[in-house]
Amino acid sequence: MRGVASSHAAISVVNAVPLGIGAAIGIDWPARATADLEPNRGRNSLVSVKPRGSGSTVVRAAARAALGRFAPGWTGRLRLEIRSTIPVARGLKSSSAVGSSVILATARAAAASPSAVEVARVCAEVGRATGMSATGAFDDAVAGLTAGGVVTDNRRDEELCRFAVDPDLGVALWVPDRRHPRSPLLRQRFRRNPALAQRAVDAALEGDWARAMEANSALVEAAMGYRYARLHEAAARAGAVAAGVSGMGPAFAALAPGRRLRAVVASLPRQGRRRAVRLLAEPGSRRNLT
């Protein structure tokens, strides 16, 4: 029995660590998983992963959680193949994307059809259990599986509301080479400015995602020690309508109309990786980046 699934990277609108409320927007940068269930009576479930080196704690924990939820009592071997180029520990939700794709592919191999929210809840449980995420990153998991923007309560793994993002916008990304520490190690840093955190949450709940993104970035930059004022200025001059740190960083994301996207990408530092990506679209829709 085989299941194939994809989930995607996402960019932050509101970091959930300060108040437990998070918001994110999915982008078209996929992680793909293929799951093969091979029944074998009398043996416990095993997980083999390829390519070698992709069998991380999150992958194995996600696979076992999916088996427990969607194939209880099953015994045999689960073979997984992972394909992802999303940079790890840069703030682009790689763990949520890979975890969600593994969970959904495993569920499909077991002939189950869970909703995006159900998959995201399992992924959030895995994130907390493995210590990869302070909040479980339910917002990131939902955003990677659905188009548009989402605001969630990560304390209860519930979706609060969705917000529209102009489909003509694209995302300019700057991804430095350095990694961030795991979010559970950073909790206290993010609780120093609750007023600014609340401002970001309120803006997101009102649907003003651009204002929320800017307020959130100020909070994250202060907590992490990033000096991104010049990045904001350069991106705005080039035509960005909003910009900010994604996740714990150090990735920086700027949204701009398609006609200005190339200029915004060019405004970002050459050290590290620069690229333009589409927003995650509804199935069947088409958009071009110019």
Write the layout of secondary structure elements.
Elements: E1 2-14, E2 21-39, E3 46-50, H1 57-70, E4 76-84, H2 94-109, H3 116-130, H4 138-145, E5 149-153, E6 158-163, E7 169-175, H5 194-205, H6 209-224, H7 229-238, E8 242-245, E9 252-257, H8 258-267, E10 273-278
Structure characterization notes:
- The protein has eight helices and ten strands.
- It starts with a strand and ends in a 12-residue tail after the last strand.
- Strands 1, 2, 3, 4, 5 and 6 form a six-stranded mixed sheet that branches. Strands 8-9-7-10 form a four-stranded antiparallel sheet.
- With 290 residues, the protein is an alpha+beta fold.
- It folds into two domains: 2-163, Ribosomal Protein S5, domain 2; 169-278, Alpha-Beta Plaits, CATH 3.30.70.
- The chain has helices spanning 57-70, 94-109, 116-130, 138-145, 194-205, 209-224, 229-238, 258-267; strands spanning 2-14, 21-39, 46-50, 76-84, 149-153, 158-163, 169-175, 242-245, 252-257, 273-278.
Question: Can I get a quick summary?
Answer:
With 290 residues, the chain is an alpha+beta fold. The chain is 35% helix and 28% strand.
The overall pLDDT average reads: 91
Head-to-tail CA distance between termini: 41 Å
Q: Helical stretch count?
A: 8
Q: Based on helices, strands and strand pairing, what is the structural class?
A: alpha+beta
Write the CATH fold name of the largest domain: Ribosomal Protein S5, domain 2
